[in-house]
Amino acid sequence: MLDSTIQISVAANQRTGAHAPLPGTQPGQGKGQGRHPRRSDPIVTLALLALCLVLAAPGMLVELHRPDAVDPAEAQAIVTARQTRAARSVMAAARPTDSAADTYPAGQATPPLSGTGLLSRLIPWLNGKPQLDQPPGITWTHLIALESAERWPGSQDPKYQVLATRLCSAAMGLLTVVGVFWAGYCIGGTRCAVYAGLVCAACGLCTWYARVATEPIHHAALATLSTAAALWAIRPLRPTPSVARQFLGWFLCGLSFGAALLTVGPVALLTIATPITLVLVLCPHRATHMLGLLAAIFIGALLVLPWALFLFEQRPEIWAVWWSRLAGEIDAPPGGFAAKQSAFLAIGIAALLPWAVWLCAAAVQSVSTSSKGSRTRMSLAWVWLLPVALTGVLIPSSDPLGSLLPAVAPAAVLIAFMFAQYAELADEGRYTRTWRWLRWPFFALLVVASLAIPAALQWQSEMIERGWIDHAWAETPGWVYAGGLCAALMIAVAWSLKWVLRGRPGKAMVCWAIWSLIVVAVLMIPVTRGPAMRNPLHDEARRLAGLVGDHPLFWVSPTPATTAGPPPALLLYSNRDMLSLTVGDLPGVGADGRPVYLLAVPGSLREHPSPRLITQLPATGRHLYRLDQPWASP
């Protein structure tokens, strides 16, 4: 068991000269700072970290290739990387005297902006427009993934492009677990590190975003790594670390901070710099550590500076666009914004189940008399959690739930530190009120969930008939699968009962983490095979690609006000670019004599005799027309 391994590590500490409790301080007591976390054997610590990663990997990787890109943000991120890669290839092959029309295929995007430098070839590119207002970090990461997947058989197939970019997210998910483990080690030692790694690995919210090629998991990983490196450099509430350690820690913090700025923009100041500043307030040697933080910010700024200056040269008003993300655009009616964000916060707490129960307990434990001597260390996790959570709640986002993802790391560390404190007190025969009061309701919750989850998985059709749910949320795998899941969950719960009865909070927590890991990993298989993970545009896009071939294809809107551009999934699975036009832009199209295809709203081209209807595409709400001669005015 993991907790037994941790005890072996603690025993090894005594042979390797671990820190002893502070003189005159009883366990669980002290004068504001509490006991120093024990130093552990590095080999044992790394082995425990590897074990946390192994346990986290199945939920993040199982059936990763199967679900379609149902999230428009994921499809857009992949298409942006693919079109940016195509634009780079064209610009690299172009001669200085070539024009864009001479070097790029007709009907596709032209190279973004003038310039032959490296940065001009790295501008994210989508639907014929440079995406200068979007931080480029995730596009650059996906570019590396697509380049690496170039040698795969059939690498031009969209499903391999989706898999390659999702592997980047899975890697970021594992890096998040590493960062949480590291931060937990810096605050509470090996036991806290293992508990934090398990909570993060068993969090369904973290696992879900680690399976989707979108921005939130990149933000969470970089913010966690940056904060963990800062905590390692600070060495909270312990003797001042060596200069070499401070240099390396703040350097890694600065690199991660700069990468986060390139990924999410100035919001990284609120999710990284602000929590670290608050941590410094609680620690001694504030002046020295503040210099280190300023150095890290300077390193991050140097990393971002070339790109920022390039953007300012191309579009001077870009600074206003970037900084406006800190405030967002609140167009809800009075009171509507608060209600909306409160709903997202409630959803975020629900996504943290079952750990949200113990997160609430941590708020009580922080002021409990049993935490005397450890409150400062617990406060380190709180001052990390609160600014990050408030940033996700208060700043509007296209994906509010994803905005809360960076808060998973400090929440995991906070819960882990609380359980580590429970375990230390239990070793002395002492038990806190929060543990005594919550263990049985939490145990009952897991028993009910162990029966309800397999039942809901198996009886989806009956639930739809009774109107309890609108549609199936997963594939119905059969009684054997559902029964096996129920048996595995009940075994984990029964295993935890042994330690609950014996008053061993740490070992019970490990069993509950295993229960959560089983739920996350096993449910991912039927969920990814279910109808909710099938994009109706997938089949239509492949059909469209077969009909159009290599001919130019345009997305035609009736008026400029209705020009929203083609759905990203249509671009992704048709494996081609598609420029947007209005009906007024059509005169002159097809003048070179090549057949041209148009995707237009039914009836919008009724008065024009030129195009010929080919087929209907219900999922897009459009019809496909073929233009064999230059567009004629009505």
Written description of the protein model:
The protein has helices at residues 2-15, 42-61, 72-93, 100-103, 137-148, 158-201, 204-209, 215-234, 243-264, 268-282, 286-314, 318-324, 336-351, 356-365, 375-394, 400-403, 408-427, 433-458, 460-465, 479-501, 505-529, 537-548, 568-574, and strands spanning 125-126, 129-130, 553-557, 579-582, 596-600, 612-617, 622-627. It is mainly alpha-helical and 634 residues long. The longest helix is centred in the N-terminal third of the chain and has 44 residues, at 158-201. Helix 3 (72-93) crosses helix 5 (137-148), helix 8 runs parallel beside helix 10 and helix 14 runs antiparallel to helix 18 (433-458).
Spell out the key features of this protein.
single chain; globular; mainly alpha; 23 helices; 634 residues; two-stranded antiparallel ribbon; five-stranded mixed beta sheet
Summarize the entry for a quick read.
This protein is mostly helical and 634 residues long. The protein contains 23 helices and 7 strands.
